């Protein structure tokens, strides 16, 4: 047998872990972004739905909103934990705040946070429109359109 150079083996042993680590990091970044977008979508939908709910009292509105938040389909979040989801009504403005965490899989590789957790928060608010205000806006719109 003749001599063989083993530099390909050494290079592969050095490069392969870096490539696999970079691929795993990109996969987790995409997973984080996917879950963050889902959180924003759910918080926005709950806020819009809460602003459109009809209720005679604030307590009734908050109860309906809590039921909607409890019924949120959480299995669509992959490797994600929702840490906060709350809605409130203040001065005819309905606001929803949500937060979630994604645990980083490899200890010590999370350079931004010592807890090995990535967090995201989302909040949306919509002003509730009373029927009287809506009718007035419709009349005003009809007048403006009729002038032209």
Counted by DSSP, the helix tally is 3
Shape: elongated
Radius of gyration: 26 Å
| Order of SSEs | HHEEEH
Helix content: 40-55%
Strand order of the largest sheet: 1-2-3
Instruction: Name the structural class.
Output: alpha+beta
Q: What is the number of beta strands?
A: 3
Portion in beta strands: 15-25%
The residue ranges in which pLDDT falls below 50 over 5 or more consecutive positions are none
Overall residue-averaged pLDDT value = 81
Main beta sheet: 3 strands, antiparallel
Distance between the termini: 95 Å
The gist of it:
The protein is of the alpha+beta class and 148 residues long. Helix content is 51%, strand content 22%. It has three helices and three strands.
Overview of the molecule:
With 148 residues, this protein is α+β, with helices and mostly antiparallel strands. It is 51% helix and 22% strand. The chain contains 3 helices and 3 strands. The chain has a 3-stranded antiparallel beta sheet with strand order 1-2-3. Strand 1 and strand 2 form a beta hairpin. The N and C termini lie far apart (95 Å).
């Amino acid at each position: 047998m003749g001599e063989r150079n083993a530099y390909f083996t050494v290079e592969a042993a050095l490069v392969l872990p870096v490539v696999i680590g970079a691929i795993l990091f990109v996969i987790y970044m995409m997973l984080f972004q996917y879950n963050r977008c889902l959180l924003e979508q759910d918080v926005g939908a709950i806020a819009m739905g809460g602003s459109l709910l009809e209720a005679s009292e604030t307590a009734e509105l908050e109860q309906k909103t809590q039921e909607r938040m409890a019924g949120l389909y959480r299995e669509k979040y992959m490797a994600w934990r929702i840490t906060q989801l709350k809605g409130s009504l203040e001065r005819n403005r309905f606001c929803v705040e949500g937060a979630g965490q994604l645990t980083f899989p490899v200890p010590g590789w999370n350079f931004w946070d010592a807890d090995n957790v990535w967090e995201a928060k989302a909040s949306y608010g919509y002003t509730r429109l009373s029927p009287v205000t809506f009718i007035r806006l419709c009349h005003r719109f009809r007048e403006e359109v009729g002038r032209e």
